[in-house]
């Protein structure tokens, strides 16, 4: 059951990333067809914009993310012995280098991992997590975060963020181009086929940000399921993570978390309730995660 879940989550992640990439290319094609009478040109521009965004975001320092979340780094074992040893042990089991360790002064229990690859990773936990969880539960949480590091989830989320940002920029460009009357196709199109093509391009551009948000959130939720399963693979103890998730769920929202980093945390730090649908949730429901863990 454990390895079936891991394989299933990896397949779903692949589907989401393929869909994300196709969405970017479709937006580029729509822009090219609408403004320059060449969908090929639009695809090239979209690919260049996306590549630039990826390069910028992947090169960003871990220190920026930690600073945004008011995290302080601990340099040696004496600052937090239990946390240090657990991170060290889980890194050894996961066969990745020991990451940098940070603590966030916040009473709400939570944690996240960041970094471009296992060689440049960092793990942060709140003081509330250290105070409320016992060693078994804390091990489950650290196993979850080390799974994100081992599975390159942080880089994957960075790529997804770059794709979303690129889509946002392309859509913003199209709005400004329309405002200044730059659409060549409005003059060049003739007949019903041209009008239908224009409508399709416009609808695609207008719906692109919504589709990008849904894809990004779906990717985030899927990686949480995968990290849960991978944590059990590392610790061989699903009960530790189950009990930890229950305590994390039964807590107040964080005060120090940065909204732009909310998807990184093991659980939504702001405890947002989805009124209509889980499509825009950064994390799957805790109850669903626990149900999957209980089957392992």
From TrEMBL:
Segments traversing the membrane: 12-31, 37-58, 154-173, 193-215
UniProt remark on cofactor binding: Binds 1 zinc ion per subunit.
Superkingdom of origin organism: Bacteria
Ligand binding (Zn(2+)): 144, 148, 224
Domain spans labelled Peptidase M48: 81-295
InterPro entries registered for this protein in UniProt: HtpX_protease (IPR050083), Pept_M48_protease_HtpX (IPR022919), Peptidase_M48 (IPR001915)
Enzyme kind, highest EC tier: hydrolase
Membrane-topology descriptor: Multi-pass membrane protein
Record flagged with keyword Hydrolase: yes
Localization per Swiss-Prot or TrEMBL: Cell membrane
Main location class: membrane
EC number from the UniProt entry: 3.4.24.-
GO function terms (MF aspect): metallopeptidase activity
Sorted UniProt keywords: Cell membrane, Hydrolase, Membrane, Metal-binding, Metalloprotease, Protease, Transmembrane, Transmembrane helix, Zinc
Residues annotated as the enzyme's active site: 145
Pfam families: Peptidase_M48 (PF01435)
Co-factor(s): Zn(2+)
Family membership: Belongs to the peptidase M48B family.
Official protein name in the record: Protease HtpX homolog
Organism: Levilactobacillus tangyuanensis
């Amino acid at each position: 059951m454990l390895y079936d879940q891991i394989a299933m989550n990896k397949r779903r992640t692949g589907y989401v990333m393929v869909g994300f990439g196709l969405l970017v290319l479709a937006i580029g094609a729509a822009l090219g067809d609408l403004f320059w009478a060449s969908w090929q040109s639009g695809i090239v521009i979209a690919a260049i914009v996306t590549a630039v965004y990826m390069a910028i975001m992947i090169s960003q320092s871990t220190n920026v993310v930690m600073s945004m979340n008011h995290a302080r780094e601990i340099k040696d074992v004496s600052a937090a012995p239990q946390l240090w040893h657990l991170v060290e042990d889980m890194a050894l089991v996961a066969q990745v280098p020991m990451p940098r360790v940070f603590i966030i002064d916040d009473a709400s229990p939570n944690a996240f991992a960041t970094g471009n690859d296992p060689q440049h990773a960092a793990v942060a936990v709140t003081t509330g997590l250290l105070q409320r969880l016992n060693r078994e539960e804390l091990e489950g949480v650290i196993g979850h975060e080390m799974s994100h590091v081992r599975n390159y989830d942080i880089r994957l989320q960075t790529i997804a963020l770059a794709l979303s940002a690129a889509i946002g920029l392309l859509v913003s460009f199209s709005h400004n181009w329309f405002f200044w009357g730059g659409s060549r196709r409005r003059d060049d199109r003739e007949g019903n086929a041209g009008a239908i093509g224009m409508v399709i391009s416009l609808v695609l551009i207008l719906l692109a940000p919504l589709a990008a948000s849904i894809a990004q959130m779906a990717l985030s939720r899927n990686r949480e399921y995968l990290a849960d399963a991978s944590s059990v693979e590392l610790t061989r103890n699903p009960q530790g993570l189950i009990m930890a998730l229950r305590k994390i769920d039964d807590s107040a929202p964080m005060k120090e978390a940065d909204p732009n980093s909310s998807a990184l945390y093991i659980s939504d730090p702001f405890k947002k309730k989805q009124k209509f649908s889980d499509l825009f949730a950064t994390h799957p429901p805790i109850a669903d995660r626990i149900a999957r863990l209980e089957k392992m």
